[in-house]
Amino acid sequence: MITLKNITKVYRNGDSQCVALDGINLELPQRGLVLIEGRSGSGKTTLLNILAGFDKATEGEVICAYDKNFCSMIFQDFQLIDMLTIRQNLELVQDIIPQAKIGIDSLTEKYELADILNKHPNEISGGQKQRVAVVRAVLENRPIILCDEPTGNLDEENAIMIADLLKNESKDKLIIVVSHDVELFKNICDRHIKLKDGHIVKDDVINKIEIKSKSEDKKRQEVLKPGIKTQCYLSYKLFRKHLVKNIFLIIALFLSFGLLISAFNGLLNLKGFVIYNVYKRQAETTIDLALQHPKYSDQLISMREEDYADIYKKHDVVARFVDANKIVFYKNSKDNCIITRFYIADKCTKKMLCGSDSTYGRTIIISDYIATRLLEYNNLTHYNELLGMTILDDYTIGGVFKTKYSILGESEKSELNDNSSYASNDSNYKQLKERQYQSAYISYDTIIDNKSSEENIYINFCNTSTHSEKALENTVYKGQPSTRVVYGEKVDLASGTIAISEGNALNYLTDNPQELIGQVISVEFSNYRSVDYNVKYNNITLEFEVAYIFAGGSAIALSEEDYCEIVSTRNSSFFGDKIWGVSIERDSKFAVQSLISKGYTDASYYADLIGECIRWTRTLTYIELTVGVVMLIISLIILCNHIAALVDKEKRTLGVLISLGLKVKHTTLMYLAGTIISVILCLFLSSIMEIFIVMAVNVMMKHISGFQAFFYEPLSVFSLFIIFALIILLVYVFLVNRLSKKQIVDIIYER
Fold first, then answer.
1. Order of strands, edge to edge, in the sheet holding 16-28?
2. Phi, psi (5° rounding) for residue 277?
C-alpha cells in the first residue's frame, strides 16, 4: 500500500514556474489496475516518477509499505539496452535482482516473443519492444508495476494485447497506468483517477479491493548488486561499441607506460642496486665497499675503529679489508703470486682446509689458490706442509681457506696458474679478480705493526703573508730526497727545517722562489682527502724554516726526527696504507645503497665498468622520462575525453540500470571497467616489454664491458600502477559525484 500526503512538485524555468503537482493526497491499494489520465502537463509522469522513487517531491510525504526497490517501470520509449539482445536484456534482470522470476522462455512464449529472443531492440517492432518491456517488468517480480504511456506508440491490435497483459498481471500486483488512451483502459481498470493542473479532479473506485492494514503489509527490501557475468559482459559490449577510441587509448597508454616503466627502471638502477645485482648475478658471496676509489689507492684515508663498529651494528659484515699488491715470491720471478687483498679480521670467515682460522700475532691465512702455487714453487705435496712457513718477509702461514678455485677443473686451474695466460686472457683475469682467489686474512694488529715508512699524506702550504693556501697531494721524504737541488744547497735537515719541491714553491706569490730559502712557512698536515666522502679528519699546522728547494711537482722532505713524529702522530687514526672498507654478505640492496650514499664505493674489479654503465643508462633514462611524461599527459587527455564521451553517449544504458534499482556507483564501475582493464593490460604489456628492453641493454653491455649491469626492477611497474590507480580512482569519484548530483529522472530520460 502507498499513501501520498500533500505531494507538491514545482518545476522552475527562468523567472516562470509551472506547478506540476499541487497538494496531491492519495491512498493506493496493494493490487489491481489503476488508471491515471490527464492532459499533457497535468503532472501524470511527475506523479509516476515520485511513486517510482526516481524523483523527489518538493513538499509532502510518500508512505510506502515497502522499504525500497518495490516497483518496476515500463517506459513509454521502452528503455531497452540496444547493444544487448532481447534475451540478454531479460537475463540482465535475473542477474541483478535476487527475487526475480525464472523461466524467460515460458514468459516470452506466453507473450509471443519466443522468435525474437536473439534479435537486438533495433531489429524488432514497437509493439514487440513494448511487450518485452512488460515481460522485463514481470520478471522483476516486484509488487508494483508503473506504466508510462505503455500503448502510446502502438497500433490498436498491439495496444489491446498490452492492456490485456497488464490486466492479467494486476491479479496479484498493483499496476498503475498513466495513459491518454482512456477508452482502452477504463473498461478494465479497478480505479480511475484524473489529474488536471496538478490536482486530482476525479477518483472513481470501480472495483473495490480490500486494503490490508499497514501492520499486515510485508516489508520488501532487496540488496541489488550486478553479478560478475553481467558486469563483464556489459563492459565488454561497451568496449566493443567504442572499439576505435579504445584502441587509440590503449596505444597511447602502452607508449607512455612503456617509456615511464623504462625510465622508472633506470632511476631505480641506483649505483648501490647495480653493484648488489652484479655481484648477485656473478654468484659472489661478498661485496666489497670502500671509502675511497681504487684508482686513489695510493692515498690515505681516515677510518676510525668506531666507524667500523657502527657498520658492524647495521650490516652483516664479513671482514674489514685493505687493498694490497704484495708479492708472495721473489721479485721478477715468473712464478710471482700477488695478494690483491688483505682481509682484516681476528678469524678467517671462509671454510678452513687446514690449520687454524685465527690470525693472532703475525699469522696469515692464505687462500687455496695461493697455497697451491706455494706447493708447486716449493715442490711440496700437502697444504699442511705450508703451516709455519714464512712469506712476505715475516708473515707466518697459519692456515689455508677454501675458495671456488678448489672446485675448478684441472685445465682451468692450469690456466689460472699460467701467468702468461692469466695476463693475456681477459676472461681469466676477470674470473681471478672477481672471485678474489688471491686474498689472505691477517689481523688488525699485524697491519698496524707493519705500516710502511713511505706514507703519502695531505699537506696544506699556508703563506702567512698572503693567507693563500692550496691543498696538494705530497710525497713526504724522510731525510734527503733523491733529486737535484734547484735553489740553495743540499744539506742534512735538522729538526724544524724543511726542503720543498719547486712545484710547492710556486704556491707562494713570489717572482723568485729562491727568496723562500731561510723563511719560515706554515705547513698543515691532514689525513683528509675530499669533502665528497664526508670523512672526519684531524690536522696539525707546524712551522718550518726552508733549507733548500729541489726539483719536483709536489713533495717535501723532513728531518728523520720530524718525519717520525709527524707521520706517527697523523697516522694514529689510519689502519693501513691502501683502501679501507668493509666486505658484506647476505645483505639487501637497500643496505648496499645506503653505504654507497654515505660515500662508499665499489672496490672490486667491476668498479669502473659499473660506473660507466650507470652514466650511460642515466642519460637514456632522462630522455625516456621526458618523452614518457609528455606521452602520459597525452594519454590522460585521451582517457578523460574517452570516459566523458562514453558516459555521455551511453545514458540509456545507465538509465536502465538505475531504473532496475542499481546505485550510481555500480553503474559507473561498469562504464569504467573496460578502461580499467585497458590500463591493466597496458601495464602488463609494458612490463613484459621492459623485460626484453633490459635483456637488449644487457646484451649490449655484455658485448661492451663483459658483464650485465642493468636490471629489471618490479618496483617500477608497481610505482606506475599506483599512479594510475590513483588517477582512475579520482576519475571514478568525480563521475560518481557528478552523476549523484543529477536527478535520477534526468539520467533515465536523458538522451
1. 16-28, 2-13, 59-64
2. -70, -35
Give the separation between CA 119 and CA 123, rounded to whole angstroms: 6
Work out the mean pLDDT of the chain and round it to a whole number: 78
Among 130-144, 175-189, 289-303, where is mean pLDDT lowest?
289-303
pLDDT at 206 over 70: yes
- Answer for the pair 59, 8: CB distance below 8 angstroms, yes or no: yes
| Cβ neighbours for 471, distance < 8 A, ≥ 6 positions apart | 458, 459, 460, 526
Burial per residue of 722-748, b for 16 or more beta-carbon CB atoms within 10 angstroms, e otherwise: eebeebbeebbeebbeebeeeebbebb
What number of CA atoms fall less than 13 Å from residue 161's CA on the CB side?
18
Asked whether residue 273 carries a pLDDT value surpassing 90, the answer given is no
Within 10 angstroms of residue 252's Cβ, the number of other Cβ atoms is 20
Coil/strand/helix, residue 143:
coil
Cβ-based neighbours of 437, under 8 Å, separated by 6 or more: 367, 368, 369, 370, 403, 404, 405, 416
How far apart (Å, rounded) are the C-alpha atoms in residues 162 and 414? 99
Helix (H) or strand (E) holding 29: none
Averaged pLDDT, 312-339: 72
Beta carbons within 10 angstroms of residue 687's beta carbon: 20
- In the predicted model, what is the mean pLDDT of residues 231-248? 83
pTM: 0.59
Q: Which helix (H) or strand (E) holds 670?
A: helix 664-705
Rg (CA), the chain: 45
Q: For residue 633, how many C-alpha atoms fall within 13 Å in the half-sphere facing its CB?
A: 5
Distances (CA, A) of 267 to 279, 598, 615, 617: 19, 19, 11, 9
Count Cβ atoms within 10 A of the Cβ of residue 454 and give its class: 0-12 exposed, 13-18 middle, 19 or more buried: exposed
* Among 104, 95, 43, 49, CA closest to 71: 49
CA 249/CA 705 separation, integer angstroms: 40
Query: What percent of the chain is modeled with pLDDT above 70?
Result: 78
By the 10 Å C-beta count (0-12 exposed, 13-18 middle, 19+ buried), 211 is classed as middle
With helix as H, strand as E and coil as C, how does 548-590 read? EEECCCCEEEECHHHHHHHHHHHHHHCCCCCCEEEEECCCCHH
Least confident of 140-154, 165-179, 538-552, 575-589: 575-589
Residue % of the chain over a pLDDT of 90: 12
Question: For the segment 393-433, what is each residue's pLDDT rounded down to a tens digit?
Answer: 778 999 999 987 777 777 667 666 665 444 444 554 555 55
Cα–Cα distance for residue pair 482/495, rounded to 1 Å: 19
Q: Give me the pLDDT at residue 86, please.
A: 92
In this structure, are residues 512 and 527 in contact, taking their beta carbons and an 8 Å threshold? no
CB atoms within 10 A of CB 61: 10
State residue 572's pLDDT score. Answer: 38
pLDDT of res. 82 = 87
Cell of 609: 665498468
Which SS3 state, helix, strand or coil, does residue 194 take? strand
How far is C-alpha 140 from the chain's CA centre? 46
| Separation of alpha carbons 381 and 369, rounded Å | 14
